[in-house]
């Protein structure tokens, strides 16, 4: 659609990168605000958000390499191509590594880990929603062909060159499906965290709701990787993260007396 935000001579700034950066900053701002409300250290939560964001980018790249290992094995130069460097990778792979880094950081700083993950969850949702708008602008993560009235047709040759999105074919706007789902999830989580809840309820709800949304969106999304038992690798990850979310919701860890009701 609109892969280049600014273009000056040979230099150009990708719209995707700008929206991902905006999404990260908005999500971090919300997490810090919620941390103050919950009586947590804003500085520690801000650092946690930055470390988790970096881990998310690394995890997304690693998962992308694993999913498409044959491409990079046969052509190692692709590892350092502009397209590879600009690609965010697989979001759920980044989410898993970000959660792992978050747990280690929380243990090291002695933050209450479930309560801390709860204040991060709404920011992750809205940040991802904004980032998916960047995917739509770049043309990546496109959907399968469809004749539905809200189908989108990409016509920018630059988008095709950078991401491989097919041109002049009506496609499911899977990027917008996911952005809309994450925006709705954010609204729910932002409302829910201000109501009485057990520690882990917010991050658990996020994992369940996002996993369900992503699982069904995957059915109308284009995949280069083969399916396993009729499901994509991302759908299998969704099942795992959904089960983790259910476990957190059932855990029902009481909140400390000093926390906001």
Q: What this model shows, in words?
A:
The protein is mainly alpha-helical and 261 residues long. The chain has one domain. Helix content is 64%, strand content 3%. It contains 10 helices and 2 strands; from the N terminus they run ββαααααααααα. The chain has a two-stranded antiparallel ribbon. Helix 6 runs antiparallel to helix 8 and helix 6 runs parallel beside helix 9. It is globular. The mean pLDDT is 84.
Radius of gyration, CA atoms, in whole angstroms = 19 Å
Shape summary: globular
Secondary-structure element order, N to C: EEHHHHHHHHHH
Indicate how many domains the architecture comprises.
1
Q: Count helical runs.
A: 10
In percent terms, what proportion of residues is strand?
Answer: under 5%
Task: Give descriptors for this structure.
two-stranded antiparallel ribbon, globular, mainly alpha, 2 strands, 261 residues
Write the layout of secondary structure elements.
Blueprint: E1 4-8, E2 11-14, H1 15-37, H2 42-67, H3 69-74, H4 82-86, H5 91-109, H6 113-138, H7 157-163, H8 174-192, H9 201-217, H10 233-251
Antiparallel strand pairs: 1-2
Summary of the model, kept short:
The model has no long low-confidence stretch (mean pLDDT 84). It contains 10 helices and 2 strands.
